[in-house]
Fold these 3 entries.
Entry 1:
Amino acid sequence: MSRITVLGGTGYAGSAIVAEAAARGHEITALSRSVPPEPVDGVHYVQGDVTDEATLASVIEGADVVVGALSPRGALADGFRDVYRSVARIADAAGARLYLVAGFSSLRPAPGAPRFVTDLSHAPAEYHNELSTVSALVADDLPATPETLDWVAVSPAGKFGAHAPGERRGEYRVGDDVALGGPTGGEISGPDYALGLVDLIESADHHRAHLNLAH
Ligand SMILES: NC(=O)c1ccc[n+]([C@@H]2O[C@H](COP(=O)([O-])OP(=O)(O)OC[C@H]3O[C@@H](n4cnc5c(N)ncnc54)[C@H](OP(=O)(O)O)[C@@H]3O)[C@@H](O)[C@H]2O)c1
């Protein structure tokens, strides 16, 4: 059993991860500004803002693992990378491993090829900030953290999210930073992304790595 703190544990990805990890007997703390209408039994929901360092510290200290499931939307559209700089610093000091819910655009179509984010012409303009912000976190910010921080960024397949929740198949594939779904993206349901992420947390055999999950 691990003590796992999920930042954004009530969002699309976060709530699936919370449900999966709690069902396996992990001790879960979920931080968000609002509490969910249907809380998962046994989960400790903390209402607070990730831009407040004291709140962040209070939920990270004592955790074995921190899962970052925030999105750079709304009030976090600008401060997202700063929040994760604080998360990385606090997690490193606390000796907690950090798992980031990343995005498809930070993956590559082939080994060593430019990341999808370098050409966003296929994506509607309203998503460009989100895609490039999350990609910068994966490509620039996490690799620049002290070597003592154990982080894993896990990109979903292209078809993933509240608009396309899908169903639990109980299966997934794990790849490195080359998209398993290829340039067309592939897909992964919320429950199967959570299954894969919690398996990665439990196996703990990737370190300072960028991975992807797809059906
Ligand atoms: N195919 C793809 O590549 C793909 C698709 C979808 C998502 N993603 C990525 O997956 C990640 C998670 O996305 P998502 O769609 O699951 O996000 P989401 O549903 O928008 O959830 C965000 C979570 O963060 C919480 N939150 C927001 N602002 C906060 C604050 N200031 N303080 C504390 N909590 C806060 C929200 O709860 P409150 O609002 O109550 O605070 C919620 O729990 C993002 O990085 C996103 O880019 C990738």
Entry 2:
Amino acid sequence: MNKTTTVIIGAGQSGLAMSQQLTQRSIDHVLLERGDIANSWRTERWDSLRLLTPNWQSRLPGFRYDGPDPDGYMDMPEVIRFLDGYGRHVQAPVETHTSVEAVRRTDSGYRVETDRGTWLCRTLVAASGACNIAGVPKIADQVPHGIDCITPMQYRNPGQLADGRVLVVGASATGMQLAREIRQSGRDVILAAGEHVRVPRVYRGRDIKWWMDRCGLLDLRYDEVDDIRRARRVPSLQLAGTHDRADLDINALAETGIEVVGRLAGARDNTLLFSGALGNICALADLKMNRLLDTIDAWIEDNGMTGEVDAKHRFDPTRIAASPRLEIDLASSGIKSIVWATGYRPDHSWLDVPVFDRKGRIVHDGGVTGSPGLYVMGLPFLRRRKSSLIDGAADDARDLADHLQAFLADRSLAA
Ligand SMILES: Cc1cc2nc3c(=O)[nH]c(=O)nc-3n(C[C@H](O)[C@H](O)[C@H](O)COP(=O)(O)OP(=O)(O)OC[C@H]3O[C@@H](n4cnc5c(N)ncnc54)[C@H](O)[C@@H]3O)c2cc1C
């Protein structure tokens, strides 16, 4: 039986940032990681993926990208090297290849069962990721046999897909990137687009992430938002990190010959049914993009930067076909594969502590759960808009480590 003050589950950026913060506070801890450091980036991403956040935005407590290309976008080997380097830099006490199988409460904290023994601890941080499972809608059950279904967690490159037309469901960063790559491989692609967030890669000469950072949009706190449940469900931005900094919007994809249809709404026999609201959805995405650009323009004005950056401008509205198809017959359409780019969710199935809501999501207040000494990290909008990004780990780890330290101090006084 092993004992420590804090067990951190997961050695991605969230767990490593928390480790650095606990070390700074001299809190004894261990990280339990089922793979190696950066396991999600090593094993669950497709071959061509690059970060959509620029290199300068890869910054963690006491560590940041300091290479020659701050405005570039890391590929997966670079992300893995970056996080490995961070783990070494902060001397994170990681037990690799140790899978947590169950966590239960004890009188004095938590009992953590792994495939390599048991740990007892007073406090526990679940930093096991927000994207452990691909979220696939129920409609998938109705897809007839003979059509290959694949999720982004299984997808590596277009060579995996059966010959024939491909339907990509989902128009967030993942769906858009995969649709473009599959189209570039020479296949016919149909993209089913529901609610999405359109942004340009570059505005007034700077990366959109630079503006969002400067304007403080990424620092927006969870307790400043009117509807935090909704904010936590907002899809990822339509962005990709490419050398040419090209936009990744519906106009760009349509120009490459991708057919865009509405949200996949259902299936009847062999027929897929798509929403007729594509026009409205795209108009709303354009409106929201323009609101973001208005915010940036106002910030530039207020900060006297007008003369230093390119002129204000607006992008073409999203163009959609006059009447996008509402139905596709799978037998005659030539569709042989469906890529379910319909989101991700965490896997906390090992957590045997009553902190879940009816839908199985951990209930927390900015990462602090109702179970004393139990924390969660890395979830969308956990404490800030940037919480699930590499750049969000530092502030969240600091805040939660403060809370954890105070909790331990209180308990020592009581003991
Ligand atoms: C496709 C994709 C692209 C992304 N692109 C960007 C980007 O460009 N920029 C950006 O800032 N963010 C990006 N993100 C978001 C975010 O940075 C990543 O999801 C990141 O991996 C989250 O880090 P994390 O430490 O919170 O979780 P993870 O990196 O998922 O780390 C969790 C760790 O916990 C381990 N673990 C899980 N369960 C157990 C268990 N039971 N026992 C032991 N270990 C366990 C896992 O092996 C993993 O190593 C992207 C996410 C995805 C899915």
Entry 3:
Amino acid sequence: MGVEVVVDGLTKSFGKQTIWRDVTLTLPPGEVSVMLGPSGTGKSVFLKSLVGLLKPERGRITINGTDLVRCSEHKLYEIRKLFGVLFQDGALFGSMNLFDNVAFPLREHTRKTEAEVRRIVLEKMEMVGLVGAEKKLPGEISGGMRKRAGLARALVLDPEIILCDEPDSGLDPVRTAYLSQLLIDLNSQIDATILIVTHNITVARTVPDNLGMLFRRELVMFGPREVLLTSDEPVVEQFLNGRRLGPIGMSEEKDQATMAAELAHKEAGHSDGSPDADVRGVVPQLEPTPGLPPRGAVRRRKDRVMSIIHTLPPDAQQGIIASLTPDEQRHYQVSAGVGPDTATVPDTTRHTPSPWPRQGGVL
Ligand SMILES: Nc1ncnc2c1ncn2[C@@H]1O[C@H](COP(=O)(O)OP(=O)(O)O)[C@@H](O)[C@H]1O
Ligand SMILES: [Mg+2]
């Protein structure tokens, strides 16, 4: 099973430029999480920090009891073997065919025989749907195939943590849907902890168990998907609806005067260019392709989320309860109602003035 990744008070700067500060979150073992954020908010820097390629100035990243930020080079090398990373550009070697690209980590980091290498490479290429493409060069195939080859290469060392940097970038909506399904299928087959960085709204809505968002050099929120999908925190709502109206501007941040003017314009009945009026809410999550085992994370996550449900906002509570089967509702002793008022779960967040939660540490 995948391992837990605990990020605590992480801050990363380049010279005087702080990329993000005080990021605190936990990637639960075997669950799929998505980190959202506008371009340039430091999502790639976050992934590279997790895998030890960049060194944050402050905070901890704890995996199996080891703090990656401060451990020895030797220990870091050991921990890195737990990771499979799909970089934003696929990072394939242009002069090597797909077989050799996928085989590369095995030849580099293990002493497996060529027969074993071949068996593993073909197995992973089959998992990502690339059978028959072994001899192709990266330049001869589509962007979607390159992503899948990058993913196959990330899988060959049997990672317990998989990091994907914008797996959907450059893909059309159909290819993106296939890739989303592939990630869920992989999770059902190997139960690895997965973190996907993206700014794709559809991926964010349908793929992960947990959602987070980086904005203005901070982690705005991180928690169960139901919390962000029902959130009325302006940054999160604007982003998940792809709207111009809101705090996120063309070059990241808007000033107050612009926001007020836009709001007045919208209230006067003008469109702000968003695709739908409002698509806030919990949409069904992707399930593994029929025939594959159920995702191990689903059961664990239900126990985990139900143990903290009383700390979540009412809409998120409703979304979670509505996703349970009648048997599960009996098991957890909750019942689905028509509105938050009828939930039998104690509501402790209703009168909390600050948006929930600024930092998702315990979630
Ligand atoms: N190695 C680096 N040295 C200096 N600045 C960097 C480095 N890598 C990234 N940055 C800066 O960090 C910021 C966040 O970049 P990035 O993580 O790539 O954003 P995102 O992936 O969210 O689009 C950018 O302003 C970028 O210029
Ligand atoms: Mg990036």
